[in-house]
Amino acid sequence: MASIFSKIVAGEIPSYKVAEDDRFYAFLDINPLQKGHTLVIPKREVDYIFDLEDEELAAMHLFAKKIAGAIQEAFACKKVGVAVVGLEVPHAHIHLIPINEESDMIFSNPRKQLSSDEFVAVAESIRQRVENCRG
């Protein structure tokens, strides 16, 4: 059975897409820790990130690096935090979270509530910057 992320890639479930190429897809987390919280996934369904082939894992991180650069430009943050937890959805994914302090990445923190219009604006802000980021 396809994961929710595979259904997003297939267009069966809507998402706030930030970027994609032939192998990877980046979209906003709909339950974000911070405004701009983005998920990067391989289009190929693999549950555990370290089950990806070495080249694919490296390419996914380079793709994520470009997205992180765009997030940092779009939001006033000290850094973009990176987390790989992988228990909530059986599909490899990287969390990219704009942070100003370590506590911004505590996954048990209350999630931000954004309207659909806010999600659209956040995704567009990052998407515009992705095109100009070299990563």
Dominant shape? globular
Number of domains: 1
Question: Which range does the strand content fall in?
Answer: 15-25%
Q: Please give the CATH class.
A: Alpha Beta
CATH architecture identity: 2-Layer Sandwich
Order of helices and strands: HEEEHEEH
Q: What Rg do the Cα atoms give?
A: 14 Å
Looking at the structure, the CATH topology is: HIT family, subunit A
What structural class results from the helix and strand content?
alpha+beta
Mean pLDDT: 94
* Helix percent band: 25-40%
Stretches where pLDDT is under 50 for at least 5 consecutive residues are none
- CATH homologous superfamily, by name? HIT-like
| Number of helical segments with 4 or more residues | 3
Give the tally of β-strands.
5
Largest sheet: 5 strands, antiparallel
Distance between the termini: 34 Å
Q: Strand order of the main beta sheet, please? A: 1-2-3-5-4
